[in-house]
Amino acid sequence: MKIENLLKYQEVDGQLKKLVSEINQSEESVKGKKLGAFLKESEEKIKKMDKRADELNALIQKLKENYQQSTQKFAELEEGVEQAIDKDELNYVAKKLAELTKTIASIEKDLANAIKEMGDIAKRYDDLRAKVPSAKAQYKECRAKFDQRKKEQEPQISALKQQLAELEKDIDSKMMEAYQKVRGQNIYPVVVPLVGNNCGGCRMDLSIGAVGKIESQGYAVCENCHRFIYKK
Ligand SMILES: [Zn+2]
Fold first, then answer.
1. Burial class (CB in 10 A: 0-12, 13-18, 19+), 83
2. What's the domain range around 128?
3. Domains of the chain: total
4. Which residues surround ligand 1, an ion (CB under 5 A)?
5. Which of 36, 51, 59, 224 gives the lowest tally of CB atoms within 10 Å of its CB?
6. Spacing, Cα 226 to ligand 1 middle (Å)
């Protein structure tokens, strides 16, 4: 279980990491990701707007029906005023008319609000829809460039992966597993030197036991960050 083998592995792993990160941080990758997110977001927004527009259409329809019914009833009640036989009946009809006036005003207000919201949605919808085609074209362009770059780097990536597979043969499987577990948390380097009595990664003080292990087996595992620590 020599730490030297793991250090060699880590060096190649670092080259691979650098290469992959260069590809992922390239302009086409960063821009492409942004455009992809924009397109996805737009699709969701458009879907939501469609749904709200349907709801508003139904609401407007219903409000218009209510309005018609209420105005019709109002006309009927007005006739009732003329035909009222006594003061009580007149008062009753007048009260009903006042109530209905309020109801009609409220329907008119709701209707105006719904129509306004519908107009706002239509505008936002058009704005968004206008932006989508150009974003799609740009996304496609970025994607093609990204794929091209990836393809160009592929032989180098394969060679490094091949090298890693070869180096892995000389490393204890448990050690490899422990390395990959830390590496999987996007931590690099995983094998770090001892700095004073501290872990070279997280700077935590090592126990006497851990320092002893470094002396006896060449390395120890940090109890805090689980990196491998060796003495340079
Ligand atoms: Zn540590």
1. exposed
2. 3-170
3. 2
4. 199, 201-202, 204, 222, 224-225, 227
5. 51
6. 6
